[in-house]
Design brief:
By secondary structure, this protein is α+β, with helices and mostly antiparallel strands. It is 32% helix and 27% strand. The chain is built from eleven helices and 17 strands. It has helices at residues 2-25, 92-104, 118-125, 141-149, 154-165, 168-181, 204-217, 222-225, 243-246, 290-306, 401-413; strands at 64-69, 74-79, 113-115, 138-140, 229-232, 235-238, 250-258, 262-273, 276-287, 308-314, 319-326, 332-336, 341-346, 353-359, 363-364, 372-380, 383-392. The strands form five sheets. Strands 14-16-17-12-11-15 form a six-stranded mixed sheet. Strand 7 (250-258) and strand 8 form a beta hairpin. Helix 2 packs parallel to helix 7, helix 4 packs across helix 5 and helix 5 crosses helix 6.
Length: 414
């Protein structure tokens, strides 16, 4: 009788496990809220914050600044990066983003001619930046882009805004919606050109994110930003970014000035490294003069390129680890990154870099290629340095009913 009771207990436990297995196999409707169609990313998520082990940057004579490494998505240095400031003509970076977005979507073409409204013409008469486009004329989009970027023309900028949005007001709404998509919390636009207006504000950090998204999403914009001069209507104007004339590695990006903002410059520099090339982006806000904003930006870029070593840890699509997958048509999946895993560290400390992997075990199929399944923690000695999402490099479809039931049983017993 004792043996019989023992067998009954084992069978009861087995059926209990099977019941839980079947409930795991049969799909259950989720009550979780569906994700938004356009998720707003955290503005800080685009770049890893600077570690306390970072070397000290040079003294920068400006109200606020930030230096970003676009190749590794690391913030190298900053001061007052989240202070609310007037962005002046740096506003035109968001305007340019929407213009290149419209070009990509076929809403505009470079050869298309846009009308110059009285509003665009009058805005050009306000302040010092204009492209000298004539009232009621029609100007090619390509020339308007050059006027906006090289000459910082307020008239060309408004003409483009009207061409994309229909009206300036609609275009400004588009600018603010795009800022929300980027996850920007401290940026609000009141116009497309950057003239002083109530509530027209941003921050050094968020301006760096707009600039990064522009040259990442639309690399075809960079040739415009590296142009040193542009002639329209017989009037030649030079690019106000003095670094284009002084440093061959600088290929952008935008200057800005108003009485309230001071002299501002977002500059980007690309220099070769042992493994390829490295791009830095500096944002300097509130300098005392055009010369000062160029000098302080150059100082930051030179420091960023010289004070760090580049360490490549893994190639693109190189497995960092292989993990077991449950309930899938394959038993394992390779985990890694679709882009190279590269970090910059203080010069001479590359040998101290180590990585550890954290997985969201158990990994249950289906897995899609590129799905986040954990994280890669990068340390410099004992110092936390950077954390990156660990992605599935393989697509693993769900197994059939019997395969899912068998793996569910094994998971239940574990």
């Amino acid at each position: 009788m004792t043996a019989f009771r023992s067998r009954r207990l084992v069978l009861s436990a087995t059926f209990s496990v099977l019941a839980s297995v079947l409930s795991a196999v049969v799909p259950v409707a989720s009550h979780a809220a569906a994700p938004s169609a356009v998720a707003a990313a955290s503005p800080t998520a685009l770049f890893a914050e600077p570690s306390t082990a970072m070397p000290q940057p040079p003294e920068v004579a400006a109200r606020a600044f930030i230096l970003q490494d676009l190749s590794t998505r690391q913030t190298l240095a900053s001061r007052n990066p989240d202070q609310s400031v007037e962005p002046a003509s740096l506003t035109k970076l968001m305007t340019a983003y929407l213009v290149f977005q419209a070009l990509q979507g076929g809403k505009l073409s470079l050869a298309q001619e846009l009308p110059v409204s009285e509003r665009a013409w009058r805005t050009g008469m306000t302040g010092a930046s204009r492209s000298f486009i004539n009232l009621n004329s029609r100007v090619k989009v390509d020339d308007l882009i050059k006027g906006m970027i090289v000459q910082s023309g307020n008239d060309a900028t408004v003409a483009l805004a009207e061409g994309v949005g229909g009206t300036v007001e609609v275009f400004v709404e588009m600018m603010n919606r795009q800022a929300q998509v980027f996850g920007l919390k401290g940026t609000r636009f009141a116009n497309p050109e950057g003239l002083t207006a109530p509530g027209h504000v941003s921050t050094a950090r968020e301006l760096s994110i707009i600039a990064t998204r522009l040259i990442t999403d639309f690399p075809n914009s960079l040739p415009y930003y590296s142009m040193k001069e542009f002639t329209f209507n017989g009037i030649k104007q030079g690019n106000r970014n003095l670094l284009l004339f002084r440093d061959a590695t600088v290929d952008g990006l935008k200057t800005g000035y108003t009485d309230a903002a001071g002299y501002c410059l977002i500059a980007t520099s690309r220099r070769p490294t042992a493994g390829g090339e490295r791009r830095l982006l500096s944002v300097v806000l509130g300098a005392a003069s055009p010369e000062a904003r160029a000098n302080e930006s150059q100082k930051l870029l030179n420091w960023g390129h010289s004070a760090f070593d580049v360490v490549k840890l893994f190639d693109a699509n190189q497995p960092v680890t292989t993990a077991q997958v449950w309930k899938g048509q394959a038993n394992t999946a390779r985990l890694g990154r679709s882009t190279p895993v590269v970090v910059v560290v203080p010069r001479g400390q590359g040998a101290s870099v180590k990585t550890t992997v954290t997985r969201n075990d158990p990994l249950i199929a289906p897995l899609s290629k590129g799905q986040a399944v954990g994280s890669i923690q990068i340390t410099l000695g004992a110092q936390p340095w950077q954390t990156l999402p660990l992605l599935s490099l393989d697509e693993v479809p769900q197994a059939g009913f019997m395969g899912r039931m068998w793996d569910a049983l094994r998971l239940g017993i574990q």
